[in-house]
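Lecture notes, unit on protein representations.

Consider one protein chain, 116 amino acids long.
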Amino acid sequence: MQMDNYNGGSSFDIYQILTIILPVVSSVVTWFVARKKRKNDFLADLQTSIDLLSEKYNNALRELVEVKEQNSKLLVSQNEMKQQIALLTQENLTLKRTVDELNERLSNVKTITRTK
């Protein structure tokens, strides 16, 4: 009978140890699994943020290229207009001189006709 008590007692001790150790072990394992999941979720959130920022950067870069193209075209147009303005200014000066000469001739003609 002492042997039965000894076997029964050690069996009882193993159950007591398991009931104490198993919840602790399972809690530790659950904590590690949850920690890994949190890290994975955090990394997934970071990747999503990186993708969003990358997309916005690419859009901004495309817009910048478009604006630079427009700016280049506007600068070419501005230079063409400056050349046209310079030509028109020269033409205006020439026409002004011609008008002044013609007015002078006309005033000379008026003077001659008045004296007669």
